[in-house]
Amino acid sequence: MxxxxxxxxxxxxxxxxFLDEIASxxxxxxxxxxxxxxxxxxxxxxRNAKExxxxxxxxxxxxxxxxxxxxxxxxxxxEEQFRLKEQxxxxxxxxxxxxxxxxxxxxHILRSRSWRWTLWPRKAEALLRNIFHLKNNRxxxxxEGIEEEEEDEGGGGPPIPTIPCLNAASDVAVxxxxxxxxxxxTDAIESVLRQTYRPRExxxxxxxxxxxxxxxAKKYMGHGVQYVYCNQGHPSSARxxxxxxxxxxxxxxxxxxxxxxxxxxxxxxxxxxxxxxAIGWGANESYQFIGH
Length: 292
What we know:
This protein starts with a helix and ends in a 20-residue tail after the last helix. The protein is rod-shaped. Among the domains are: 58 residues; 145 residues, Spore Coat Polysaccharide Biosynthesis Protein SpsA, Chain A (Alpha-Beta Complex). It contains seven helices and four strands, in the order αααβαβαβαβα. The chain has a four-stranded parallel sheet with strand order 3-2-1-4, with helices on both faces. By secondary structure, it is α/β, with parallel strands linked by helices.
């Protein structure tokens, strides 16, 4: 009996020890799982930190590349600006040199013996041309008077003056350049058509106007006026465009916001008959002060 009790006690003790070992092993396993989970979280945090650092590094790299491109573009623009200034300087130097050479050449011509010896023949030629022009102008005035009488008999002429077919002496072309100056264009055209010495051609160059310039110009197209539409973007280029549409040897450029006095062309041609006269142009402003 005592041996049986001892055996039962031993079994009970072993059972308790076994259960304790199982509990201890379970606790160790749970602690190991907890440590593993914590380690995984640390690894995840470290990986996220590395990814954030990588993204920031990429952003910094892109920022540096953008800054580098900006600096390269700024340097290119500075070089281009310097090159343009250098070209402008060279162009000015060439223009000044050409002007100097021209003045030198003209001075040499004026001091030459041939120029002095041909002075009186040139004056005689100018006198003959003057007489020839006066004769042609008289014939022209007579022909125009006959045409006016015929128009009066037929019930009146057109409301808009036209450019008649003149003789060979009328070798003047007027080129009007216009960009959004349609409200001035009518006065400019009328001032040309009312000239005492009417031009052979009147060319209106419309430089991409967005106002009523085409309507105003086309109203005169049936009256000896040529309308040219272009996209030049600069008055000088627009004038050159007008030159390409005329073959007249004498050109008169007029801005759309300007007008000609009644005998402007006649006065210019009269002066050009003298070979000693040079004709130029300049800007002039007049102001009227009204007192109170």
